[in-house]
Amino acid sequence: MPPKRAVITGLSLITPLGVGVEENWRKLLKGESGIGRITSFDPGGFSTQIGGEVKDFNYEDYMDKREARRMDRFAQFSVAAANMALTDAGLDLKELNPEEVAVMIGSGIGGISTWEEQHRIFLERGPNRVSPFFIPMLIANMGASNTAIALGATGPNYAIVSACASGAHSIGEALRLIREGRAKVVIAGGSEASITPLTLAGFCAMKALSTRNEEPEKASRPFDAKRDGFVLSEGAGVVIVEELEFAKKRGARIYGELIGYGMSCDAYHITAPEPNGRGAILCMESALQDAGISKEEVDYINAHGTSTQLNDITETIAIKSVFGERAYKIPISSTKSMIGHLLGAAGAVEFIVSLLCIRDNIVHPTINYEYPDPQCDLDYVPNKAREAKVNVILSNSFGFGGHNATLIARRFE
Amino acid sequence: MDIAERVRSIIAERLNVNPEEITLETTFEDLGADSLDVMDLIMELEQEFDLEIPDEDAENIRTIEDTINYIRSRIQSQ
Fold first, then answer.
1. What is the ipTM for the molecules in this complex?
2. What range does the domain containing B49 cover?
């Protein structure tokens, strides 16, 4: 029996640009930045004082207050995004047996704001004052778990932790579950809410973040010669992945078919990418092979494009190595130029955005592209959205630890 | 606010229920609280009334009336 096919029928986005797919898409096409000075705490003493905060998220729109209080913000994002994606898909889970519904929602870090708060209580007031909700709010699988509880989804369920590739890996695993017939519907994506003092301090110590505090909206500038690091952001992206025949039978709208999933590891350094792009090349090639398509068919790449010196050079080298001369003809954009780096949610959010490129035959820009870097010489769709026939998209995600994931989707006709 | 009112308001707030739903006979279970909620409530009460509530005492507190009586007796014996 040939493997079953997986299509995407529902999308949701929670990002610094807003809550909801269409609001995000409109702003991404206009080239708006969602980055600003951090407001959830005073960032005064930090070398980086900017981030991409989700501003208009009201958990009470998606769950009751009591449920919400048992969840870290990242889990609240997961449950909210899952609900929005189901609504977008027009899918009533009552049409399925609960065990046919899987949830794969990853997170790079998990409930670190809960960790910091409870650790403070622990130090100030002793071990007997730590909340009984501390552990179930902290652990990174609780986005997936709370989503299943909220929806009664009893199928396969776990959370992938692969840093900034978590969201992409989660959607890739959804493809495998559908192909193997383990689920008919997979609610898949990533969620992150780690703009906290301790996290910021840690990323600052690594010199991984942009310090362009005076011009926050210009700080994330992937592939630009004056880039100086990524911008820490939060949010979530969730897709509804459905088995094709089930989706067709219920007359679902199909954003695209998920056809390829690549994975690899740099096996080189804890944070730096392998300088020749070895892991990234292997990852893109394995995705192309999994999709069973030729390199000629890819007509858009959503880059990992973090705005760090190393990533943007290495990713460029890798794309050139995989696509040869054709690399110069493929529009490549970095969503992070506008929303910053959503860590474990980034891969899911960027895959969703890429599906919108297919839907509307337009590619969003990489903003803040002002000074060309001779080492980054591809077409990054600088500053302005562009109409383009987009049938096949490839979306890259590379995480600290050398974890790489690539997703490929194709227009469904 | 007297003890009964303070207890009721903490429980209403923590469990997100209307204070009017809470009578003396109401149990934590009636309000949908699981064991983690009960632990959380006990800690909140300890904080509010500046008490240590040992586990063996906590196990015997089931209703709102139990809670109020227990706290009253502890405060009086201080």
1. 0.89
2. 3-76
